[in-house]
Design brief:
Helix content is 53%, strand content 15%. α10 links the parallel β8 and β9. The strands form two sheets. The protein has a six-stranded parallel sheet with strand order 2-1-3-4-5-11, with helices on both faces. A six-stranded mixed sheet has the order 7-6-8-9-10-12, with helices on both faces. By secondary structure, it is an alpha/beta fold. The protein starts with a helix and ends with a helix.
């Protein structure tokens, strides 16, 4: 305790010296400090009132994702982007489609509107390659998020923000081994999504047991449940079901009940329902990639690029995950998941 107190007193002395120097540098003994305090108060008051914290031009940034309808994961990404946009005096536009060609068309529409920055996902990179070349030709800076880390730089993006899907999958395989699991089902709810394939492949790579992919129609939740249930009924030796998105975890839980299976249900991604299920012990673990951070940082990095030509990552992805969340972690995160930011 004595060492901590000494450190605090020493830090206080340093801060006092710095503030003293600032005061001497001002027009009077307190003028410079008071000006800084007034500016800080004005910024805080502006944010509290829903006003921008900066005085830069009102740039327009558009985000286009591969989200299907009703996917709560992308609600969290969008919320992070919107809050950063409000802070950065940015007009934020959003569109989504789980069809690659429609995604490309949405990006083209924003290029036509001459937006000041684009945020896109590359779940189906082949469909996005040509339109991103058009964005680059038009001088529109692009940030990729969530999926497409491998193609991001080649497609001309400034940075990629998200988790490495293969590494995230490997973390799942390791966690299953720790739990003594032997036979797992990896449920892929969007065929053609390279990130989903990478997750399951990564898990297979490190998992000591066997893992089989199950392809389902993610736009039809009753079909998802029925498909998982049929697999569990046909093979009672399956001891784990891994879903690749939070909305599908509950469908797997219901399928487990209907099939009278003892399999553990685990999932990628986190939301309020998943946190509650983890706390209750209905789910074993979740893999969190912090979607709020993906949306928030993407907008912030575009603002920094427009304002100061800053680029983060040095040509490598800026990682937001993976983080394994278990029952013991769920309670501490409940407040964040309830407000929709985790």
């Amino acid at each position: 305790m004595a060492k901590v107190g000494t450190g605090v007193r020493a830090m206080g002395a340093v801060l006092a010296a710095v503030l003293g120097a600032s005061a001497l540098a001002g027009c009077s003994s307190t003028g410079g400090l008071r000006a800084e305090q007034r500016a800080a108060r004005a910024s805080a008051e502006g944010q509290a009132a829903g006003r921008a914290a900066v005085s830069t031009p009102n740039w327009t940034v558009a985000m286009v994702t591969h989200s299907g309808d009703g996917d709560t994961f992308w609600d969290i990404v969008q919320r992070g982007a919107e809050q950063a946009a409000e802070k950065d005096n940015i007009k934020f536009l959003y569109a989504h489609s789980d069809q690659g060609q429609e995604q490309a068309q949405q990006v083209q529409s924003y290029i036509d509107k001459k937006v000041d920055g684009l945020i896109v996902t590359l779940a189906k990179p082949d469909a996005m390659k040509d339109v991103l070349a058009k964005a680059r030709k038009a001088g529109i800076p692009v940030i990729t998020v969530n999926s497409g880390a491998e193609q991001s730089k080649a497609f001309g993006a400034l940075s990629h923000i998200g988790q490495d899907e293969s590494i995230a999958g490997e973390a799942v395989g390791d966690e299953l081994d720790k739990r003594g699991k032997k036979k797992a089902l990896c449920v892929i709810h969007e065929q053609g999504n390279v990130g989903h394939e990478q997750r399951c492949a990564g898990a297979k790579k490190t998992f000591g047991g066997s893992m089989t992919n199950l392809y389902v129609d993610g736009t039809n939740m009753p079909d998802v449940q029925a498909s998982i249930e049929a697999k569990l009924q046909a093979d009672p030796s399956i001891d784990t079901v891994v879903t690749l998105g939070a909305p599908f975890a509950d469908a797997a839980v219901q399928a487990k009940k209907s099939a009278d299976s003892k399999a553990e249900i685990d999932t990628f991604d986190l939301n309020a329902a998943v946190a509650a299920s983890l706390k209750a012990g209905t789910l074993g673990f979740a893999v969190d990639q912090q979607p709020y951070l993906q949306g928030y940082e993407a907008v912030d990095l575009l603002w920094l690029y427009r304002y100061n030509a800053d680029v983060l990552g040095g040509g490598r992805p800026v990682l937001t995950g993976p983080q394994i969340i278990t029952q013991q972690d769920a309670g501490a995160l409940a407040g964040y998941t309830d407000r929709g930011t985790r």
